Amino acid sequence: MTYFEIASILVVFSAVFGYINEKYIKLPTTIGLMLIAIVFTLISIVSAYVSPLLFEHQKQLIQNIDFSKVLLDVMLSFMLFAGALHTNFEQLKVQRRPVLAFAFAGTLISTFLVGTLIYLIFYLTGFKIDLIYAFLFGALISPTDPIAVLGILKKIGIDKKIETVIVGESLFNDGIGVVIFLTLYKLAKEGINHLKPVDILKLFGLEVVGGVLLGLFLGWLAYKMMKAIDNFDTEVMITLAVVMGGTLLAHKMHVSAPLTMVTAGLVTGNDTVRNNAMSEITEAYVDKFWELIDVLLNTILFVMIGMELLVISFKIQYVLAGMIAILIVLISRYLSVKPLLTYFERRMNFIPKTEWIMTWGGLRGGISIALALSLPKHMYRDIFLVMTYMVVIFSILVQGLTLPKLVNKIQPGENY
């Protein structure tokens, strides 16, 4: 299949599934699309007994898509920029300390906790793996997914301070999680003895600091260019150039493309740029353009996640490990946010039981699956992929569907 054929089929599926969801099911887009895609995939698997040829065509479609490469190298930059562009920059600035603490410290704590617990559970059940590989799974599953989180939070009411922290954390810990994963991957590949602590710090620092600095520069450059002209067509193209050119530049400079795009999106979308560099018509066109890009890519992404079911090997021991992983990830999420919330709650005046909202609202998504798919076979790719898939499906379908009820219970009397 050509890339155009694959893209065309995915867009058709996305449009049909989106129509079914809006017309009949009426679930939040993220949840509805994934649910329909999973049901469609299960029907396809059953239909293999009736029409093996049709099943093989569907399976071949998914196998022809390098999910990891498509998401991490192409789609992610567009979606992160769009998400950051529509984030309340002023509110995020007020909440910057807890946001950065959850994004950096929270992700590191969760990576350590998930990795340690997975290692111990595996060891006690007789399935021994090296600790570095357990930490690798912890790194890929710890970041909350900004695409999934934003999709759910748009549909429910929630205390604005908590919403800002969850959205801000998910935007930044995505990039942080990828950097932690790549650092651990390099350790696992080359061996701890071949890398000095200073090398690890350099790698981590270059990716994180370099990505943020590049994003700041690109955002500033876009601001200067947009301020100098008044033509909405060209200004929309400038924002598109920031994403596409910035992603290429980040890869060439070996800095974090996700952090570059988040930073560039926040700078481009803040009130100073909007008021000084964009006319009303430009602002409307920029917002609508990136909203459309965000919706389209989100739709395709969650259809792809649902259809990945076709190519994943669900052995019984892998499924059991996945069920355990769901519990471990939730426990680790709670233990990673609780001490940070305790530290910040007096300063930020968070509502009681915020830790439960942040734990249950810490959704995982396509990024975790993409990272799991990028693992080689000898790094326990098959079992980690099933575990990751089950955590992602549970978080979006179960946590996503029940999050509004939890919010209503914790925030009684509010019209949510």
Order of helices and strands: HHHHHHHHHHHHHHHHHH
How many helix segments?
Answer: 18
Instruction: Please bin the fraction of helical residues.
Output: over 70%
DSSP strand tally: 0
Net shape:
globular
Characterize the biggest β-sheet.
none
CATH class of the largest domain: Mainly Alpha
The figure for the number of domains is 2
Parts with pLDDT < 50 across at least 5 consecutive residues: none
Instruction: Examine the coordinates and then state which fold CATH places here, giving the name of the CATH topology of the largest domain.
Output: Na+/H+ antiporter like fold
The Cα radius of gyration reads: 21 Å
Give the N-to-C terminal Cα separation.
46 Å
Would you tell me the overall average pLDDT? 88
Strand coverage percent = under 5%
CATH architecture designation of the largest domain = Up-down Bundle
Structural class given helices, strands, pairing?
A: mainly alpha
Q: Describe it for me?
A:
This protein is mainly α. The protein folds into two domains: 3-63, no CATH class; 67-410, Na+/H+ antiporter like fold (Up-down Bundle). Helix content is 81%, strand content 0%. It has helices at residues 3-25, 29-47, 52-63, 67-85, 89-94, 96-124, 131-141, 146-153, 160-190, 197-227, 232-253, 257-269, 271-277, 280-307, 316-348, 354-360, 366-373, 381-410. The N and C termini lie far apart (46 Å).
